Amino acid sequence: MAIRHFLDLWQLEAGELRAILDEAHAMKTARRGWPKGRVDEEAPLDGHILAMIFEKSSTRTRTSFDVGIRQLGGTSIVLNANDMQLGRGESIGDTARVLSRYVDMVMIRANNHADVEDFAESAGVPVINGLTDRSHPCQIMADLMTLEEHGVDLKDARLAWVGDGNNVCSSFIHAAAKFGFTLAVGTPNRYAPEEDDVELARELQGRIELYDTAEDAVAGADVVIADTFVSMGDTDADERLDELEPYAVTEELMDLARPGAKFLHCLPAHRGEEVDTEVIDGPNSLVFDEAENRLHAQKAIMRWCLDK
Ligand code: CP
Ligand code: NVA
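A: This is the predicted complex of the input protein with norvaline.
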């Protein structure tokens, strides 16, 4: 069997993604009320080791993968890329070959998406994309799980993304093609999503609508999604903050969405920048369920990678 890498949502069959989400829901339900350190009933990844490589900061991804592999019965090693020979010029290919001799699976958070693809090419074990400049597939699996928990039927839903058409936006674009929801994206032209992602999703029958105002994107939406205006690695913070200011999610903007529309944000958030406090801390904000569900969704992704 080919090695099961989890690099981007467009690469997986819709049925496989559906099965991962179903498993995530089931695993969450099965351990409700348990202490967080207790191993799941079947310990499906007993004896397995996950290595995590970080080129950028992380709170949620690092902690949820670490707790997740433990709940599955496995263990983990966290590696800071700067402390590795990778930081002194050892090739990605050699690093991938070596780590594959020690561990059963590798999660990478990298600056350049192509580096994760190169790593996977040389690895003898599954590789998971834990965020790159181009995408954040694990995040979107958790986000969709969260919407389903709150009664959103993804096939009929209208989701609105506003602000920067960044890495998280790209994975939502890929997901629209796989889960059938409509994605309305509102960004200034300069920060529009990658054309390749939009074309790819449309080729896969994804319903992607592009707007240049937040208001047009949010009109009639069931869900409104924001992310930071300045992502890790962005060097033009001042320009971004200026140009993206009209795309902030305020209560007035939320009023244009469907009554009771949900709010999502992958976190970390900047209150008063991309979202107002009243929205992110309001009754329709799902951001902490979203953060929790990183754990459950990634456990299901790790099981899929190892076919367990
Ligand atoms: N949402 C997310 O990936 O958070 P971290 O950067 O804290 O991992
Ligand atoms: N777009 C953000 C997401 C952080 C989880 C970034 O890349 O910094």
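The pocket of phosphoric acid mono(formamide)ester (ligand 1) is lined by residues 58-61, 131, 139, 266-267 (CB under 6 Å). Residues 151-285 form a domain with the Rossmann fold fold (CATH 3.40.50.1370).
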